Amino acid sequence: MRVAVSLFAVLVAVIATTSAQTRAETGKSEFSKSTVTVGAIGTGYLRNWPGHQNSEMIYSVEPKARGNWKFLDGVVDLTAYVYAQKVNTLTVEGSDFYLATNELLLKHHQLTVGRVKTEWSVADSVWKTGLWSPRFMWNQLHPQELGFTGVTYDYKQQVFELKLFGSYLSIPERGVPFVEQGGKLVSPSRDWLSPATQMIMMNQSMNINYQIKYPPLNDLILFPNAAAKVRFGKESGFWSSLGYTYKPLNQTDLSVEAEVSAKDLAVYTKLHPRRLFHHLATAEAGFESNSWNLWTSFTAEKVVNRPPPVGTWMVQPIASTVSGAWGTRVKSVTGFEANLSFLMTESEKLTPIAGAIPLDLPKRLTYTQAVNVGGRFDSRRNWSIGVNEVYDLKSNSGLTSVDGVLAFQSGLGLSAGADLVNARSDSSSGGFLDTFAGNDRFWGKVSYAF
Question: How far apart are CA 244 and CA 143, in angstroms?
Answer without folding.
Answer: 23
